[in-house]
Amino acid sequence: SQQGEEDPQALSIQEGENATMNCSYKTSINNLQWYRQNSGRGLVHLILIRSNEREKHSGRLRVTLDTSKKSSSLLITASRAADTASYFCATLNNAGNMLTFGGGTRLMVKP
Amino acid sequence: NAGVTQTPKFQVLKTGQSMTLQCAQDMNHEYMSWYRQDPGMGLRLIHYSVGAGITDQGEVPNGYNVSRSTTEDFPLRLLSAAPSQTSVYFCASTTRQGRAGELFFGEGSRLTVL
User: Fold this and answer.
1) Which of A6, A62, B62, B106 might form a disulfide with B4, Cβ 3.0–4.6 angstroms?
2) B58 touching A, CB under 8 A?
3) Cis link prior to B8 (omega < 30° from 0)?
4) What is the spatial order of strands in the sheet that B76-78 belongs to?
5) What is the pLDDT of residue B71?
6) What's the CA gap between B19 and B78, in Å, rounded?
7) What local confidence, expressed as pLDDT, does residue A104 receive?
8) Tens of pLDDT along B4-30?
9) Which chain A residues contact residue B102 at CB under 8 A?
């Protein structure tokens, strides 16, 4: 079974709105990462949050981590049509040798 | 820098045939891995390597072999292809420093087994 599960599976918003995606996981982690995948392409790393961090920002991205609830959220502010992609959370185990991905959220931003 | 390069990009096999998916990186990364991506399943780890001469199994290793004779290359072998191995395969690498490195992905190899 997958370590991470994303919610919602699909999200459609208008340009300029904010998009929030959630990720839940099952076991303790070293860090949690978010990736983006454009259709037919490889994944691109967006942001990493360590297990002892609670919030992190990078440009229009804001990530939170709640280790007590084993959950994370990714917020994309002021979305653009170019943000249309699939977004995946991934958790690194404590041994640091396995990064496990969730099923992803498909985001569509309408112009 | 080319980053992570995968070949071939597309391949069609018949059941029982064998083939090797190639992966090369030019970033001197110690860690390399192979994932498969199926619709609705996200990415699942097949095999990984923490350095030349060292490989280990991921979540779904059955039907696949790997080797790591050099830092740069990490080929994935399908010894007897099955329709269940129809998928998109991604190779990824990262530095092991701090155990927290982001993964750099190749563009994927789309495999169809008939």
Assistant:
1) B106
2) yes
3) yes
4) B4-7, B19-25, B76-78, B64-66
5) 95
6) 5
7) 93
8) 999 999 999 999 999 999 999 999 999
9) 33, 45, 48
* Sheet with A55-58, side-by-side order of all strands: A5-7, A19-24, A71-76, A61-66, A55-58
| Euclidean distance between CA atoms B13 and A102, whole angstroms | 28
pLDDT at B2: 80
Whether residue B48 lies within 8 A of chain A, CB to CB, comes out as yes
- Asked if B49 contacts B56 with a C-beta cutoff of 8 angstroms, the reply is yes
Q: Which of A42, A50, A104 sits opposite B42 (nearest CB)?
A: A104
CB contact under 8 A, B43 and A98: no
Specify the pLDDT at position A29: 92
Chain B positions touching A50 (Cβ under 8 A) are: 100
**B99 → chain A, closest CA residue:** A96
- Residue A62 phi, psi dihedral angles, 5° rounding: -135, 125
A→B interface, C-beta within 8 Å = 2, 4, 30-31, 33, 35, 40-45, 48, 50, 88, 90, 92, 96-104
Tokens of B57: 């199994």
Q: With CB atoms and an 8 Å threshold, state whether B103 touches A45.
A: yes
Interface test with A, best of B102, B104, B107, B109 (most A CBs within 10 A): B102
Prior bond of A8 cis (ω within 30°): yes
Cα–Cα distance measured from residue A109 to residue B34, given in angstroms and rounded to the nearest whole number: 31
